[in-house]
Design goal:
- The strands form two sheets. The protein has a three-stranded antiparallel sheet with strand order 1-3-2, with helices on both faces. It has a two-stranded parallel ribbon with strand order 4-5.
- It folds into two domains: about 200 residues, Alpha-Beta Plaits; about 80 residues, Chromosomal Replication Initiator Protein Dnaa, Chain: A, CATH 1.10.1750.
- The chain is built from 16 helices and five strands.
- The longest helix is centred in the N-terminal third of the chain and has 20 residues.
- Helices cover about 55% and strands about 5% of the residues.
- The radius of gyration is 21 Å and the shape is elongated.
């Protein structure tokens, strides 16, 4: 969770909310994070996120940094937007996700912004409480499964929401200095022990297991754009090779590979060349929606 600096608004209208949701989608594609539920309020947001790669810090830096840039561009301003670093709580799986989703989704109701949560468009409640197709970056099923019902799960979730916030969760959030872990005594003990051993995020070796391989990503691009892998990997000075540019972009965005590794793979001497190509491509994609759609198909 995070809020605006000095409790100022971070969302000023529909396009701001949409830009933030777009940033969440990018974080999912680039870092593999699974957004289980969300609620965007005018001056703060709540997210329930699962991080298979143990890279919450990197994903949140992307979300906060990129949204700040987009906010400032829309608002024609500059400077920091948030009060500081996000607040994160590690929670025990299959234990508190359901209760936390209720706390997050009830925010507009508790703040008396709406009298019925279905009327609030900027949370994932609509996908939990109604049978609606949800975006590919949203993962509600794991939370809904904790209701332990197969039929009428959406109606059951609505009834669960109407019961009000769990007293334990309410007391936890009302504490001035919240603990960094929420779960059983055994879980909290394990979490503290892991923190001391590993210092936070998982190792590069462990993360590599989850990264899409560059060869696989390049092959996907070659299939979508009907070119050979060799033509993508072979660059000619002064020529424009869009599939090659796109493959570099996909390796960074989807594979989260380092620029220096991408440069080596594509036979470039400097990682800065990769950064320049990706920047050019991003500008091109803003004007060419058809090309952007083809890229999405390749990843």
């Amino acid at each position: 969770m995070n809020r605006g600096r000095g409790r100022q608004k971070i969302f000023h209208g529909q396009e701001y909310y949409e830009e933030f949701l777009c940033t969440l989608e990018e974080a999912h594609k680039r870092f593999g994070v699974e957004i289980q539920c969300y609620c965007l309020m005018s001056n703060h947001y709540h997210l329930l996120i699962k991080t298979p790669e143990g890279n919450l810090g990197r994903a949140m830096r992307h979300i906060s940094g990129v949204y700040t840039q987009r906010h400032n561009r829309l608002r024609k301003t500059d400077g920091p937007l948030f009060r500081g670093r996000y607040k994160a709580i590690l929670i025990e799986e299959d234990s508190y996700q359901l209760q936390l989703s209720r706390y997050i989704h009830r925010n507009p109701l508790e703040a008396k912004i709406v009298s019925n949560l279905k009327d609030y468009p900027w949370s994932s409640y609509q996908y939990y409480a109604m049978k609606r197709a949800y975006p590919a970056w949203l993962y509600p099923q794991e939370v809904l499964d904790q209701l332990q019902v197969k039929a009428k799960v959406h109606a059951r979730y609505r009834a669960f929401i109407e019961l009000g916030i769990d007293e334990e969760i309410k007391q936890f959030y009302n504490k001035g200095n919240m603990a960094p872990y929420l779960g059983s005594e055994v879980f909290r003990s394990w979490a503290y022990d892991q923190r001391e051993k590993e210092g936070g995020e998982v190792t590069e070796k462990e993360k590599y297991h989850f990264k899409p391989d560059m060869d696989k990503l390049i092959k996907q691009v070659s299939v979508v754009f009907e070119v050979t892998v060799k033509s993508i990997l072979t660059g000619k000075r002064g020529s424009t090779n869009h599939p090659r540019w796109i493959a570099m972009y996909v390796c960074q965005e989807q594979g989260d590979h380092r620029l220096i590794d991408i440069a080596r793979k594509f036979g470039l001497k400097r990682s800065g060349s990769v950064a320049s190509i990706i920047t050019k491509l991003k500008k091109m994609l803003q004007a060419d929606k058809k090309l952007a759609a083809r890229i999405n198909k390749s990843i």
